[in-house]
Amino acid sequence: MNADKLTLARQFIEAIPHAQALQMQFESLGDGRAELSMPWREDLVGDPRTGVIHGGAVSALMDTCCGAAVISHPEAPAGTATIDLRIDYMRTATPRQRITARAEVYHITRTVAFLRATAHDEEDGLPVATATGAFTVERPKGGAQ
């Protein structure tokens, strides 16, 4: 992945207030793939009795990770927005464990990127959630299509 794409993807994350509020961090990025993580925090817990992180925080992480994957794709040079994102929750995340999302563009057209994503805690095995989505592919104004 070239340095300009990496810079653009990082700026994308840094410009999203909820990504900053959730303390999302890049783990890896390149060629239509992204990996982002966020720490478990008490203020993100959905049910204080269980200590399980709220599903909305996991959703935000997966959505942001998918957007970063699109921006890192060689055929999607400018930007993106979510068209559709279906998330299936497989199990509750283990309390006090970091959540990591991985997303990959598996098909791209001139205007839409299709992605698959998973979210895991620090346990091996079954993911916390899986997702499939469609995202816009924004081209530079006046640039090559």
If you had to describe this structure to a student in words, what would you say it looks like?
Helices cover 24% and strands 36% of the residues. The chain has one domain: Roll (Thiol Ester Dehydrase, Chain A), CATH 3.10.129. The chain is elongated and about 55 Å long. With 145 residues, it is α+β, with helices and mostly antiparallel strands. It has a six-stranded antiparallel β-sheet with strand order 1-2-6-7-8-5, covered by helices on one side. A two-stranded antiparallel ribbon has the order 3-4. The mean pLDDT is 89.
Shape: elongated
The level-1 CATH class = Alpha Beta
- Average residue-wise pLDDT: 89
| Category by helix and strand content | alpha+beta
Helical residue percent band: 10-25%
Q: Unreliable segments (pLDDT under 50, ≥5 consecutive)?
A: none
If you compute it from the alpha carbons, what radius of gyration comes out, rounded to the nearest whole angstrom? 15 Å
* Number of separate strands: 8
Characterize the largest beta sheet: strand count, sense, and whether it forms a barrel. 6 strands, antiparallel
Strand numbers in spatial order across the main sheet: 1-2-6-7-8-5
End-to-end gap: 19 Å
H and E string: HHEEEEHEEEE
Number of helices: 3
- CATH fold topology: Thiol Ester Dehydrase, Chain A
- Amount of beta strand: 35-45%
Fourth-level CATH superfamily = Hotdog Thioesterase
